[in-house]
Specification:
With 358 residues, this protein is of the alpha/beta class. It folds into 2 domains: 139 residues, Rossmann fold; 192 residues, Glycogen Phosphorylase B (Rossmann fold). 38% of the residues lie in helices and 15% in strands. The chain is built from 13 helices and 11 strands. Strand 7, helix 9 and strand 8 form a beta-alpha-beta unit. Helix 7 crosses helix 10 and helix 8 crosses helix 13. The radius of gyration is 21 Å and the shape is globular.
């Protein structure tokens, strides 16, 4: 391969958090190869996460409902594009099939640390020398090309038209700009990664009383019941929109929050990409697995006294021990204390910035 590739393809088909975690890689590749065409292949439902990204030239999309026929079409498109470099940061059977169409392009892959992960999850043996964030693992796949992290974190560019549309919907329902807003996102990809909805409800009730907070309740269609539980706790202050918005609209709504409280989920990574004050609640997963949120504006609440954590790298369908202590023993007071600490720190930093500007 030439020292400076003309055409680069990134493969990461899903999901919300995993795709957002590649945005530092996308930005670093653009910085290193400013004149290259940089394209990305992902599943169609996630296109909103990248369609406004200025560092990408083209998005190849895969229809999840299209089966192998859709996968063959995508493989044909990749083959016809003539890429010099393919960066596969998904590494599953589908991306293996896709990247074979790009030969003789150079293939770059990241390490999934499968052995360390297997030993930690299944036997509690921790061979990780340090907790390497997934963003760092993705970037390591192309470090041999002189591509390095710029330290700017995750990135999600809002669509102005979608933002105006969301603003109109929220204000039409009584949400007031300028009033303290907390966004609660009680859902997650797996049931075991969800802090109970009644705990979120208690947090909503207290925030509405102590901070006069407006409560935005976000999520997809699976989270409507949880949103109703939270709404009942603070009916005069709640704005449930779970199941109403797509990814871009959800990001626009989330961006209006002074505080985000969520589980280990795509919403957590979305909040970090928007640089929002975020309290993340972790249950069956741990730092070593690479998905911990990074930055000064985030606090993680977790049960540190359980030797059964982690029990899965993505969250099991059911608690293997049948006690679910990693979530049930986390109390609303712990989450609220983390939120207070984060907001107090943010207020101090904001005041410092204002003084420096004077």
């Amino acid at each position: 391969m030439k020292s400076a590739p003309d055409k680069i393809l990134i493969l990461r088909l899903s999901s919300i958090g995993d795709i957002l975690l590649t945005t530092p890689l996308v930005r670093a590749l653009r910085s290193r190869f400013p004149d290259a065409e940089i394209d990305y292949a992902l599943k169609e439902p996630f296109i909103d996460l990248l369609r406004t990204n200025p560092n990408l030239n083209r998005l190849h999309t895969l229809d999840p409902a299209g089966g192998w026929r859709a996968l063959w079409r995508l493989r044909r498109d990749i083959g016809e594009a003539g890429y010099d470099l393919v960066v596969d940061v998904h590494k599953n059977i589908r991306t293996l099939f896709l990247r074979t169409a790009a030969k003789p392009a150079q293939i770059a892959k990241h390490s999934k640390s499968r052995l360390q992960r297997h030993l930690l999850v299944n036997f509690g043996i921790n061979l990780y020398r340090r907790s390497v964030p997934m963003t760092e693992r993705y970037l390591a796949s192309v470090s041999h090309l002189g591509v390095f992290d710029d330290g700017a974190g995750l990135e999600l560019i809002l669509d102005p038209e979608a933002d105006r549309r969301v603003a109109g919907i929220l204000t039409g329902r009584g949400w007031r700009p300028g009033r303290f807003t907390a966004a609660l996102v009680p859902g997650a990809g797996r049931q075991t990664k969800q802090w109970p909805a009644d705990r979120y409800a208690e947090v909503a009730r207290i925030l509405a009383g102590t901070r006069d907070a407006q409560i935005l309740i976000l999520g997809d269609g699976r989270d409507v019941e949880s949103a109703c539980t939270v709404t009942r706790a603070a009916p005069e202050s709640s704005f449930p929109v779970a199941g109403e918005f797509g990814l871009m609209e959800s990001a626009c709504a989330l961006s209006r929050a002074d505080l985000v409280i969520c589980n280990d989920s795509g919403a957590m990574h979305m909040a970090r990409a928007l640089n929002l004050n975020t309290v993340a609640i972790f249950g069956p997963t741990t730092r070593e697995l690479g998905f911990y949120p990074a930055g000064a504006r985030v606090k993680v609440v977790e049960h540190k006294g359980l030797d059964c954590r982690p029990c899965s790298h993505i969250g099991p369908k059911k608690c293997p021990k049948k006690h679910f202590r990693c979530m049930l023993e986390l109390e609303p007071e712990q989450v609220l204390a983390a939120a207070d600490e984060l907001l107090n720190k943010s207020a101090v930093n904001h005041g410092k910035e204002n003084r420096e500007r004077r």
